[in-house]
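Pasting as-is:
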Amino acid sequence: MECLGVSSVQSLQALSALLSTQQQQQQEEEEDEESCARLGPGHIGPRPKEDKEVSTAYVKKNSKDIWSEEEVAEGSQYDDFADPRPQPEYEIILKQSVGTEDLFLGLNGKDPSSMCCEAMLVKIKLPDTKATDVVLDVKETFLDLRTPKYKLGLHLPHPIHSQQGKAQFFTEREELEVTLLMKRPMDFINMP
């Protein structure tokens, strides 16, 4: 064999260096793929801090409280899942005060939508019930009705004025009608 020259030795060393870096790069890529397989959605984004700081907004005033009153939905204290009494049939009707100028001429700008309604009528059918047996409690967004035979806990679709309603029991139809005035904070815009 002929003796290799200096330039050919350097060429072989350069080729060897190129090949060895390709092998190292392949090994690094394989390691990266393996580490990516172990990553999940929790690894996206910046690393969480080791020291967890407690926000003052979530600190409870009384350590024995599980939740605050603001977190509890209105009317949830009336939920009794062990109570076997059935829920009576009911119907919610939205009412408007409409005059002839509204009906025939449309002068006040009212339309048939619920945004122009002033009151809510809740009709509750109570067969075999006397008016004296009815216990009714009305909150801003919840109506609670109890009789010896029926129980109704109704979350109202709109907030109402709880002190400005009226209830009337019709014995011949065995039906309770509760009329509630609705709270409409944007009435000055919706209704002229």
